[in-house]
Please model this.
Amino acid sequence: MDYLSPENKEFRKTLVALFLGSLIMYADLYSTQPVIPVIARQFDVSPAVASLTLSSATGALAVFLFFVSFTSGMFDRKKIMTLALVSSALLSLIVAFVNYLPLLIAIRFIQGALLAGYPSIAMAYVNEEFDKRVLGYVIGIYVSGNSLGGLCGRLIVGYLSDAFSWNVAIGFLGAVNVVMCVLFILFLPESRHFDSKKISLKRTTVGFLENIESPALVFLYCLGFILMGGFVTVYNYIGIPLMAPPYNLSQTLVGFIFIIFLVGTFSSTLMGRLSDRISRTQVIAICLSMMAAGLLITMMVPLILKIIGLAIFTFGFFGGHSVASSWVGILANRREKAQASSLYLLFYYVGSSVIGALGGVFLDWFGWAGVVGIVLILCLLGVLMSLSVNKMILKDRRHRHYYTHQRKVAGQH
Model:
């Protein structure tokens, strides 16, 4: 059976479907992020406590991704992704009627748990169904849906929360996502290269051990932790200084800042293609350096410079995530792909929850400089990890070359 490539008729429809699925997921997942300051004021809690409406969802997503990775081989890829997206959209509709913070956090936790059925399955679907020559490009398109989904969700919620309330805003977002779920179902073809198999404890354990025994893969998982942890921390709390003097921006204007996510749509595709041609280590180092440079620019007082800094930071993040996630699929070529993808995303979303919540503490202690400081440290660690992955791969190749040569020599004698 043919793998999907630009020559296939279904190639573009499949790309659109994956893009829409990614857009739905990230719009729902981060729907409360732009209204964290509003939720904090309404319920009279600190920004760190209000951020639990986001951290609970990303934390549940991370935990349940782990379980999804063990059972993903049993069920049809498309059915799992569809269930995840539709149930999440319906829960966003329910949020429109919630005005009790513990209940909101509980619903967001359930939403995050259900969404675990989409990202790792989608990445496994990409690795199974698409020609390897276009993997970087395809995952770049998929990740661009992340950025646009995050943008649309934040813009809709930010604007409508000013005009009506944050409940109405998230409920409207859920209605829009239900419509996009229908398009997702219509456009995504059934899996052609997936064989359903029963859960085998032995097979699952072996696959899991293979995915964690590779130091290169473990470092890439940690890189996902760093990338997402830093990114969510910045966007969780950027609204706090911007809604305070000397800027005094409204919730709507703060929401419009998320238009910056559009650069991520361009960045993920560009860096994905670039990684197909040059060293992935170099591309990731460039992306992390851009994140660090953008953060430093946000320390400047003029509003326009803060926005420029956020744009550079965002460009670097989406490019880095696109390359790192595709790298996992490549290194896990002979391992359980869904498990490897799930482990990467497990670390990715744990970073979102842990660093995202910790950033609120640094904001309370040191102001915006505290947020910048902790994320700069993460960027430095990310560069070191990327370099380490490259060294491990080169070392492994030299060993394989050496043993192949030794076997040839032995055969000649």
User: Anything to note?
Assistant: The chain has one domain: 11-189+201-406.
